[in-house]
Amino acid sequence: WHGVGLLCSWTWLWTSDSVLYNNHYYLYSLLLALLLLSRRGGDTPETTAAVLRAQIAIVYVWAAIAKLDPDWMDGSIALAILQHPRRQWVLRLVGQRLACATVTWGGIGVLLIAPVAMVAESRGVRTTGQSMIAAFHLGNLTLFGVSGIGCFSLVMIASTTLYPRGIVGIRGRGATPRRVGAAAAPIALLVCQAALPLAQFSQGPTHPPGWGKRVDRWAWRMKSTVERLGVRVPGGVGAG
Fold it and tell me: Using N-to-C axis directions, what is the helix angle for 184-195 and 45-66, rounded to 10°?
């Protein structure tokens, strides 16, 4: 019951005011809910890890899809992020084009590699994926700082310890009717999480996805500098 109390109080805290909303907080609530549901069902640690891993994979996949839009792919958002006074050292260090290309395509690449590493049979693939994910989140922490991204990067780095030794990573006791029935709740929640981001496309082509729309807040879209501050760099990374 302590876990249930923590889940309810934490979820109430970030849902009590729309200004406080952050999809990182939403993820923490989901992970805690899945952990509680799995433990209640008597799952093995390996099964619980697989459930948490599936939720994190959903986040990575939809975050990658969210970046397949013109504002991100032409480098405008990357440039707007790096032009912040505290981050301009990156532009001076490696140059505008290389810095923007690395942020833009490196971000998409790592987000797509992460789910593959989560189910890889090869230890080398798994280790490489874990290293890239750690570097990605450490880079985010360096660029945005603890005040800008909070503990999210640290949580995602820690999640790499959930990666399996095998395609599923579920070992231990065999399936029983009780265990199968207990798995229904976390599986249902995972299915909802995989499908819920589809709502962002229900608005039609004249209303593209964006952070300001309520349905997009559940779609694992980054609250970008462009959307938050209204920054737009004409011509993408080649501008200026």
Answer: 10
Under DSSP, is residue 86 helix (H, G, I), strand (E, B) or coil? coil
Residue found under tokens 């880079």: 139
Which residue type, as a one-letter code, is found at position 33? Answer: A
Between CA 149 and CA 152, with CA 164 as vertex, the angle to 5 degrees is 5
CB-based burial of residue 127 (10 Å sphere; 0-12 exposed, 13-18 middle, 19+ buried)? middle
pLDDT attached to residue 223? 54
- Read off the tokens for 220: 């694992």
Give me the pLDDT at residue 98, please.
93
pLDDT of residue 130: 87
Rounded Cα distance, 213 and 218, in Å: 10
Task: List pLDDT tens digits, range 47-87.
Answer: 778 888 888 989 898 888 888 878 788 888 888 888 888 88
Does 212 have pLDDT greater than 80?
no
Q: Which long-range contacts (CB under 8 A, 24 or more apart) does 237-240 make?
A: 237/74, 237/75, 237/76, 237/78, 237/79, 237/96, 237/97, 237/100, 237/101, 237/104, 238/97, 239/79, 240/96
DSSP secondary structure letter of residue 175: P
